[in-house]
Amino acid sequence: xxxxxxxxxxxxxxxxxxxxxxxxxxxxxxxxxxxxxxxxxxxxxxxxxxxxxxxxxxxxxxxxxxxxxxxxxxxxxxxxxxxxxxxxxxxxxxxxxxxxxxxxxxxxxxxxxxxxxxxxxxxxxxxxxxxxxxxxxxxxxxxxxxxxxxxxxxxxxxxxxxxxxxxxxxxxxxxxxxxxxxxxxxxxxxxxxxxxxxxxxxxxxxxxxxxxxxxxxxxxxxxxxxxxxxxxxxxxxxxxxxxxxxxxxxxxxxxxxxxxxxxxxxxxxxxxxxxxxxxxxxxxxxxxxxxxxxxxxxxxxxxxxxxxxxxxxxxxxxxxxxxxxxxxxxxxxxxxxxxxxxxxxxxxxxxxxxxxxxxxxxxxxxxxxxxxxxxxxxxxxxxxxxxxxxxxxxxxxxxxxxxxxxxxxxxxxxxxxxxxxxxxxxxxxxxxxxxxxxxxxxxxxxxxxxxxxxxxxxxxxxxxxxxxxxxxxxxxxxxxxxxxxxxxxxxxxxxxxxxxxxxxxxxxxxxxxxxxxxxxxxxxxxxxxxxxxxxxxxxxxxxxxxxxxxxxxxxxxxxxxxxxxxxxxxxxxxxxxxxxxxxxxxxxxxxxxxxxxxxxxxxxxxxxxxxxxxxxxxxxxxxxxxxxxxxxxxxxxxxxxxxxxxxxxxxxxxxxxxxxxxxxxxxxxxxxxxxxxxxxxxxxxxxxxxxxxxxxxxxxxxxxxxxxxxxxxxxxxxxxxxxxxxxxxxxxxxxxxxxxxxxxxxxxxxxxxxxxxxxxxxxxxxxxxxxxxxxxxxxxxxxxxxxxxxxxxxxxxxxxxxxxxxxxxxxxxxxxxxxxxxxxxxxxxxxxxxxxxxxxxxxxxxxxxxxxxxxxx
Length: 857
Hints:
By secondary structure, the chain is of the alpha/beta class.
């Protein structure tokens, strides 16, 4: 498959040209506007020599961004007194004599950002110094505030956060102006970041080829991407034998110098990579006492020495200062397994107490002055559910079920929402574990991310949002959304969610094709989320009928046909993509659509091959040829990806994704076994793509196609886009207590029954989880003016025995990314009726509904 062979010149990504609010980017000047680029020459750029290293790093990056946009580098005066002409100044009060001088002169007032974490202000100042007629001042309440205020401007002038990571080109501009005035902003979630995980073979082999390993050269790009996306925290790659601090001692210093808060994953306490426990000889003086079992009941002395070394390393910055860390406390078993059988609450409480004593001893300060987090991941949540608590300054990090459904959130009836450490969420875009790994490609819908994280924020989880992104690529789109929402969940309204796909594609590819590319990405997300590709095989969906002359495509054919249609639509857009955008297009749009479409065509052909082969039908050979061709095309797509930009991304798509037989990835990808039978190799045949199991055939109606929505108690059902196959309905706002039917909002569907009799109402729900751990997610159902029946969705992620009913139900739901619940109603007359859904609990996400005679269901 080849993308973009015929080209036309179109507008590339460009800055937002609103010109109607302060510090907007404009192509033409107003009377008091600041000329950032004038006749191809950028304004000069100044940072005090004594500024924090993070400010110097971002100033250097901004200078490079100005060069990318204008074609010329800015002047960098060594002293403010030597500056002349228009000038950009970046600094932090108390750390910059230049900023402090502006405050004393009354030219800079910081009321809007003072005391706010990572806040920034951008403003145009008139005549700040004798030879400077006008200055753009970017001032941070702290060092990261200055970083975010600067990268915010970089994005506005057309430098995508993905300029390096997805090769998004930068459009040249000879004239760019900023409207006069002042604007400020600050994050609403304190810690925001991502976790590089499950990184073999892709990220690991890629970094080895490009940089010689996961060293500071590689992490310089990771840190920059994180900060450009306005994230501030990283859990680094940790699959053995990787250890962030050992692989390159410069890693820790560079992270701190650039302003990144480092942490360690849910099973790596006290700043230690788990691999360090097995590499003790490399640690030197910092925690050289290691060895023995990773078991606190028999090896506590060695473990305490190991953890002490981690905190000592954190304090090795010098001058009694700590490198910026959010310290994970608690303990899981070695290799990310449970620590003990059952819930050893007393043991874990002792471990946390001992860890906090180490923190206090090494830092010389009370433990509550060092930021800490306790990750309630998998079985660790059981400790919390059984009553274990940690001090209020420790952030409680809840998790999803590894498949996008948050398992637990603060309960206002039980939890202290004002606790100092607050709450957070650990979310997954990638996972290794049952029912199967999903590591290869992006399958995450932003509407689902929005619904779950909006619920999290409304419920009080506001201190830490961190997402497992696997290898970073190919999660560019959902990661952009996740961190944009984390910066300000209040601004990511339902309307902002609707507008996000086109806004992102406009910033990435320009205005001309933005709406078409946005539609491609949204459709891709709906199709990809239906079932993870690792869970697709020849038995995933039903085939149709086979006659001697015709094959009826069935559900598998219908799905594969939709993928092929999407692929063809993408191809019609691809021919209009400018040459400079080819690489970005292929990475962000062309490859994911083409690769998943190809996978579905291959497995659909494989299903027919095996069915016909079992009947000794020679038509099986035609499908065998198709399987071979599609498998070869899969390899070609990967090869094309790895060849982009002279091999820049070689290794990044090396994850095996064909041939799963259990939860773990196949060690080597091989073509699926095909069947050939005697007879002509090529036989004429036709496939009639008549779907036999469509939603319509099942009597299902998209839940978003309701006839009436009736609000109540300040709540109302609304359509959430990019969630499920056709959107879904959710009662908003979220984070509200349960409602009774007499005070609940409802949504109504008019229905016609052909004959009288008992009926069954079925709701297709997203597989959400009861976030308070009570009796499940409840929703009310009624017909006409009849009584309301309460239906309960009670999915429980249960580690371990897949034979248990709870585990089977959850597995089935996450495989299908949906599940059904039903209610029966007494005999109804033929004719018109109204099906009503009533909001009872939060987190009920309805994708489709039906009302049919019970005997026909």
